[in-house]
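Q: What would this complex look like in 3D?
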Amino acid sequence: MALGGTTRQLLKQVSTATLTSVLFKHGFRNVFMQGPKRLNHDDAEVMVGAAYTLRYIPSREDLNGPGEFANRSHPQRRAIEECPQGAVLVVDGRGDARAGTGGDILLTRMEQRGCAGMVSDSGVRDIAGIAPLRIPVYAAAVTAPASFTHHCAVDLQVPIACGGAPVYPGDVCVGDRDGVVVIPAHIADEVAAQAVEQERYEAWVLEEVRGGKSIVGLYPPDEATLARYHGTKRD
Amino acid sequence: MALGGTTRQLLKQVSTATLTSVLFKHGFRNVFMQGPKRLNHDDAEVMVGAAYTLRYIPSREDLNGPGEFANRSHPQRRAIEECPQGAVLVVDGRGDARAGTGGDILLTRMEQRGCAGMVSDSGVRDIAGIAPLRIPVYAAAVTAPASFTHHCAVDLQVPIACGGAPVYPGDVCVGDRDGVVVIPAHIADEVAAQAVEQERYEAWVLEEVRGGKSIVGLYPPDEATLARYHGTKRD
Amino acid sequence: MALGGTTRQLLKQVSTATLTSVLFKHGFRNVFMQGPKRLNHDDAEVMVGAAYTLRYIPSREDLNGPGEFANRSHPQRRAIEECPQGAVLVVDGRGDARAGTGGDILLTRMEQRGCAGMVSDSGVRDIAGIAPLRIPVYAAAVTAPASFTHHCAVDLQVPIACGGAPVYPGDVCVGDRDGVVVIPAHIADEVAAQAVEQERYEAWVLEEVRGGKSIVGLYPPDEATLARYHGTKRD
Amino acid sequence: MALGGTTRQLLKQVSTATLTSVLFKHGFRNVFMQGPKRLNHDDAEVMVGAAYTLRYIPSREDLNGPGEFANRSHPQRRAIEECPQGAVLVVDGRGDARAGTGGDILLTRMEQRGCAGMVSDSGVRDIAGIAPLRIPVYAAAVTAPASFTHHCAVDLQVPIACGGAPVYPGDVCVGDRDGVVVIPAHIADEVAAQAVEQERYEAWVLEEVRGGKSIVGLYPPDEATLARYHGTKRD
Amino acid sequence: MALGGTTRQLLKQVSTATLTSVLFKHGFRNVFMQGPKRLNHDDAEVMVGAAYTLRYIPSREDLNGPGEFANRSHPQRRAIEECPQGAVLVVDGRGDARAGTGGDILLTRMEQRGCAGMVSDSGVRDIAGIAPLRIPVYAAAVTAPASFTHHCAVDLQVPIACGGAPVYPGDVCVGDRDGVVVIPAHIADEVAAQAVEQERYEAWVLEEVRGGKSIVGLYPPDEATLARYHGTKRD
Amino acid sequence: MALGGTTRQLLKQVSTATLTSVLFKHGFRNVFMQGPKRLNHDDAEVMVGAAYTLRYIPSREDLNGPGEFANRSHPQRRAIEECPQGAVLVVDGRGDARAGTGGDILLTRMEQRGCAGMVSDSGVRDIAGIAPLRIPVYAAAVTAPASFTHHCAVDLQVPIACGGAPVYPGDVCVGDRDGVVVIPAHIADEVAAQAVEQERYEAWVLEEVRGGKSIVGLYPPDEATLARYHGTKRD
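A: Here is my prediction, written as structure tokens for the whole assembly.
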């Protein structure tokens, strides 16, 4: 269930607020990651990509140290080099933001490789180097300590929790300045189409409101409003 | 006990830091809303207005859904259209910021209607649309999910908690970049006058400190300092 | 074990991310203050200075009020005037950010006196006046209430906790946009030298990555990379 | 939609674990009060009764003091005397357990009056006097301070939150040693009947398991197991 | 301001619920330790004693280890041997209960020495050995790790925080099954006398309520009730 | 690296307090599960067994419901039937105790199968049925909702977090009334032997203290004490 180019383009035009509303209508209530905040400058892009997952457990003194990354099969290092172009690296750091699970070097490498973004419910470090990157980065906090201080990477591409939401590899992650929503892969196309439609309506509503209209009968619309809206669209 | 124009003007000139200090002298220790942060761009106005309150409880699956807003007597919708000009909508969201209790459309409508601001100890959504608004907006977090995901509006104009502080309808809310303080309605005029006086002294102190003076005997003042200050004012 | 000018200059060139990594190699895992965030505008300086400590306990109604600061031997007032030039005032506010432990007047005075910064795991107030200061200021939150609302200053220059880390008077505090790290005084010189070395390598790595290199064998380096790096440096 | 005697008797025979499972099948996920724990000795009764609600906001220094209870129309005092026989007093204390919302005298009075129980997501005091009572008492903590230290009673019989769950007056509360579940009033009869059925099956399953059976095909049952179970019942 | 024998005897007869109410009338709202729970079997004594304080900061790897206790001047070891007979050891563990600040050996030693109790807002270990002791023990949690895992003892007999309350050496600590209240030393005699008086009234009220009386006019009393109560006492 | 019978017997004689101290000397600081409490009656056995792990992520509406357990390969159901005799089922429930990850039927089945215990950092349900079991059960809370309300089982026998500690399949879990410690498998034999030795010394110390000895020079011991202790043992 790959993320198609059309759906990706549609999702670039909609907000996470709209997506969570559409997903609610599909019966999903727990699809927004609580905690991770956008760390880039305001002009960074909207993030859209399929989830590539990385799981951490707490570190243990005899296993986790600066030397561990010399192991080329270390999951964190593999994640940075193997997360596909156009995909989002989603990190389960158990919501423990005392240490970072990425810094400016790793995120610059991901940007170079064409990854679509990174989301961690733990921390990231080197904010001065991360904020100007074009690749969208979300984390629960900015913090200096390296990952091994509190975290140990153990798995790639397994189902995880991130910010309290379930994330399965391949789920579609969309991030804007409100945060990150995860769309179950099998409904991503349908949700994208519905969200564009809702977004179009809300843009029209916002203009109406700016023009002085009351929200009563407008948001949500009554039949007269819908007729007027659809008439407008025809013009 | 309406908020008079004179008091409103005085309160626009003072900081919440000063107001909490003045209220402490009146015996009030729990008048600052812990949690809600200002979400507007830095050039937005100081917020001053009487509280118009809205209370939420947790949502229930059979009662709360996207369709609920079609009900024109729904408390949230009524709040947006009925919060008086010059008043602040204060929202008791039980400090649960997993869902928003307002977004760009509703806040634009409030701005159009001349409301003085919105404070929620829950979340708001659509930050990209909210940050540029002139109407001051305070919330505990930015989050994408719509209110009905976790909240159900049940009451207007009852006493509430917001950010751990008690808020009675008509209490005067003042917000700057430090956050929001709530002044019991019956002492608003007196507090405003005292705060302006204290603010004036502190502005003078700050100039003294910038000129190299020690805070000893200055802040708080001893008698010599007070004499010098009052002499200065006469000039 | 004073903080020497050379070490101070070296520490101004390195990040807290690098310092926590170097300290980890020395066996220290709990040297980053969790909670305090930088509150200045982005162009403020890196903070480097020896810790001068101030300890608070919860306030008590009969002891703590606005009048308490008239006492010239009050520990908070003394801290502002006695924290040495080039030193950092580190405040143990028990992580309780409901009240501020400093505002624009006190911090302006510290800037005038040439102090190197202030770190509190409680709050600060008057952010509009603090953000533009050149003196680095870190706190767990911005909040309006004055210190005596929840805090009572009791001690100067004793070992404290700040943001969950142990801080002994004289320990070296370094703060950048990631936050604040505390270096045990007796290893500050050695850590500074090692950090500069690591920072230099990481700067080179970042250029390599920007040039398209994989992190495999580069970060951390294998022998070939190290040889290449040291060759580069000779040039 | 009164709680009928038959439904009350059925609910006395089932566990809250079973009830939450039955409610889940009806689409309800947020019906268990997170926080309140049973404080009685183990031999106290199961609690079953319709909710009579009491709402608190944070106290304010000029309104809340020991003298406030002299007012005979004070909501807390009215709650104790007006909560109907057979009903459960459910208290919204905003999850703030720093003060109690009931003590041994008030709970003894409720026991005398024939109330069915008390649940608070705040604290209760005088545990030595409460634990031996026959009336079931649930609270988030045991704590000595009186309610007015942190709470102010403002409303009776409005929809509230208790332990994160929505509670409407008349909803049916059932409490055992696991805690308290709230059943929406309009489905209480149906849920009670279904729960008794499920409980009967689970009792049979437990005997099977004690006899050495695997849970595979048993819990949940496959067709052969169901046939065997229904055969058993006929005997 | 020593704790006299008469006051000690009076305080043994009153509850912490009554004491917090009496202290509230003296203007004190923050005198109950939030967090520490009684860990003894139910038949242990009421705890009454003057506070002897011990302060911890977070441990540091180079300073805190199993060997540290070999130092005979180590503050924790000194506290166990120097806490006076009849005094309560009050421990500021910053509310961090991940490690214990006492175990069965140390508490047995304190019992042997005639200390009046121990209160910690951190943890204790060896609950199987502690629960049967006669000396009252309060802690925020039971946990196995030794103190040095997360704590470092730094001070004796300084003002501290315990469970969010301020505690000065010599303040009078009273603990029952609700928890621990701290009475400022200079009002202990007066508070004790008032509490006994209130307790006597409440015992009478409880009998009235058990006899079927309404709380209206009884608790709090109106004039007729007070007359009846005082009449009763004369008999 | 199986858990041998000798080591198992030794570990049954020692406390978790002693084990954490021994593990600290081996360099391990994060081996105690913070959160899970013992739920059995006090006479239940000490828990000793190798870890068999089960991992949960948050539930998703389209995947998790009562019907999911009909799938015989469901990880939770497999865990109950496949956790080896003598092993401890260790559950990573992300510290979210809003729902149970086991109840009386499943735990009775594990008892029947000869499992050594269950530890969850989430909740368990049916405490009335669990408390009397002989199989030791630890959880962060008692709660009624079934697992699928908030949890989705995804993995067996992978490294997990439980109560903030890292747990690898095969690690040795020991639980007493203080809680549960996890011993890395490769040092279990050595740690067991050392713990028995330390426990023996502490039992002797406790007798000394009960006899009136000071802890100075005794705990920790000086050379004279050690000589006396070793002499005693020879007798």
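A: To summarize the key features: The interface with chain D takes residues 27-30, 57-62, 94, 152, 154-155, 158-161, 164-167, 184 of chain B (CB under 8 Å). Chain B has a mean pLDDT of 94.
Q: Very helpful, thank you.
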